[in-house]
């Protein structure tokens, strides 16, 4: 198989982006002398597990902290840590390979964060095209949330990595071979065994199948892939049972907390899903009504196209209204070149932010997210099924963590890649539509405005990364 010059150049760019992301963030990690308590928690557990893999708890570290007078929650003294062990196991393997030191534990997030860059390219190329995948990879390379989170010994980057990997394998299953459904499920299982919220990608796949590809339920591999992530949690639940006994699942802090959060989120999400599903079936009915009988087919088809165009124009105005009413402050902050978003080491300060926090904060970090969130509201009459999967995944993960509360930007890292894919796709869609304009002056003016906007967004995020992201001097952001 011959590889053309364009492919070679793309590979070189992706290698450059990934390697520079790893080494620049590694330098930031090494130059920072401030660490969050969670980082020491995972480091100490991994260090314990190097000697005894069953020693998965924070009791020694908890005793050390209490001896200094620091109050701690009860789970610090439980015989088994509250989260599943995959992240700590990866940190343990890294420390076995590179030595018992904090930076060795940090390699896990640093490496997986860098590997997400070529992965988002592959997913973008499969769902949209090569240019969209490459632009999304560049955006992810400079995304502040991705940078700041990957510079921490936290589980959030591994969860985002496995979520993206699961999505990539799922799309490969749709386009190439259904055995990729099993690999997608394994990746989702690894995400879930890092933290239970890693199961969200399995739920989004299920919602996508119900909405767009009900034929998938006839595929035995696909059906098994929906159950496999839960089956992969059985060893962890058995470990809990062996330690805590018959009430282990109910009394397990993290699992019980997840159930409580899900019940609260359901009060909001169920009505939203009812509205969305009702709107979808209403659209299908209107679409059927517009088709009419054979004699009126051409006329009705024209009316249908006109109707879709009107809906799309209306959705642009709706999006502009939403941005003006709800997000004006955040957009203006992002446009202000000297503005640096608030970050802190003090816990709880961001917990009571408004519901719109994640949307506004992502825009403040990177102006490009305007295209991502606009894409969620713009009517897509001819959207490809695989593209709809990206939209569903970004929306459901974001909505879940909005309802979860306790706002921390690292929590939504799992949907960042999908949002940036939507942003890159909308940018090229805008360029394509502008190039169709017949009037040269209007065409050139709009192209210049769009190029200037993107250039400004890139310059601003570069400044913000230098002044904030690469300092690694924050815990809550």
Could you please describe the fold and organization of this structure?
The structure is a single chain. This protein has about 475 residues and is mainly alpha-helical. Helix content is about 75%, strand content about 0%. The chain has helices at about 5-30, 35-50, 60-65, 85-100, 100-125, 130-140, 145-150, 155-175, 180-190, 200-210, 220-230, 235-245, 250, 255-290, 295-325, 330-335, 355-365, 370-375, 385-405, 415-435, 440-465. The relative contact order is 0.11.
List the main descriptive attributes of the protein structure presented here.
477 residues; mainly alpha; globular
Q: Provide the β-strand percentage band.
A: under 5%
Rounded mean pLDDT is 88
Individual helix count: 21
Q: What spatial form do the alpha-carbon principal axes imply? A: globular
Ranges with pLDDT <50 over ≥5 residues?
A: none
Biggest β-sheet description: none
Oligomer, anyone?
single chain
The H/E string reads: HHHHHHHHHHHHHHHHHHHHH
Radius of gyration: 24 Å
Q: Could you tell me how far the N terminus lies from the C terminus, measured between alpha carbons in angstroms?
A: 47 Å
Structural class: mainly alpha
Helix content: over 70%
Strand element count: 0
Annotate the secondary structure layout:
Layout lengths: L4 H27 L5 H15 L7 H9 L18 H13 L3 H26 L2 H13 L1 H7 L5 H20 L4 H13 L7 H13 L7 H12 L2 H11 L3 H4 L1 H39 L5 H30 L1 H8 L21 H9 L3 H9 L7 H20 L8 H23 L4 H28 L10
């Amino acid at each position: 198989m011959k590889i053309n010059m364009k492919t070679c150049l793309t590979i070189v760019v992706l290698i450059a982006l990934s390697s520079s992301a790893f080494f620049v963030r590694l330098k930031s990690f090494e130059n920072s002398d401030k660490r969050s308590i969670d980082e020491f928690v995972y480091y100490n557990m991994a260090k314990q597990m190097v000697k005894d893999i069953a020693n998965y708890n924070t009791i020694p570290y908890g005793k050390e902290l209490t001896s200094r007078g620091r109050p701690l929650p009860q789970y610090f003294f439980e015989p088994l840590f509250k989260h599943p062990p995959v992240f700590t196991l990866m940190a343990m393997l890294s420390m076995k390979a590179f030595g018992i030191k904090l930076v060795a534990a940090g390699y896990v997030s640093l490496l997986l964060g860098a590997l997400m860059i070529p992965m988002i390219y592959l997913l973008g190329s499969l769902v949209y095209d090569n240019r969209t995948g490459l632009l999304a990879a560049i955006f992810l390379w400079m995304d502040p949330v991705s940078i700041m989170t990957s510079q921490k010994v936290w589980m959030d980057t591994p969860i985002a990595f496995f979520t993206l990997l699961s999505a990539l394998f799922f799309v490969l299953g749709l386009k190439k071979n259904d055995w990729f459904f099993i690999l997608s499920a394994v990746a989702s299982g690894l995400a879930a065994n890092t933290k239970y919220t890693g199961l969200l990608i399995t739920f989004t796949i299920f919602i996508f199948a119900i909405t767009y590809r009900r034929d998938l339920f006839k595929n035995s591999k696909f059906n098994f892939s929906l159950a496999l992530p839960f089956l992969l949690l059985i060893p962890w639940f058995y470990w809990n049972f062996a330690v805590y006994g018959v009430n282990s699942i109910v009394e397990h802090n993290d699992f019980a907390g997840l159930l409580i959060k899900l019940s609260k989120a359901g009060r909001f999400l169920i009505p939203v899903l009812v509205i969305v599903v009702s709107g979808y079936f209403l659209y299908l009915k209107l679409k059927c009504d517009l088709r009419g009988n054979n004699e009126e087919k051409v006329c009705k088809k024209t009316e249908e196209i006109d109707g879709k165009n009107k809906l799309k124009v209306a959705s642009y105005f709706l999006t502009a209204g939403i941005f003006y009413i709800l997000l004006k402050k955040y957009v203006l902050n992002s446009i202000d070149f000297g503005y640096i978003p608030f970050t802190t080491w003090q816990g709880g300060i961001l917990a009571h932010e408004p519901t719109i926090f994640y949307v506004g904060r992502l825009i403040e970090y990177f102006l490009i997210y305007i295209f991502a969130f606009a894409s969620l509201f713009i009517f897509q009459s001819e959207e490809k099924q695989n593209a709809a999967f990206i939209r569903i995944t970004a929306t459901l993960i974001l909505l879940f963590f909005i309802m979860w509360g306790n706002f921390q930007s690292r929590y939504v890292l799992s949907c960042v890649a999908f949002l940036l894919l939507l942003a890159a796709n909308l940018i090229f869609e805008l360029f394509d539509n502008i190039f169709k304009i017949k009037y040269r002056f209007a065409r050139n003016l709009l192209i210049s405005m769009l190029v200037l906007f993107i250039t400004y967004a890139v310059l601003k995020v570069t400044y913000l990364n230098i002044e904030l992201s690469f300092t690694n001097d924050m815990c809550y952001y």
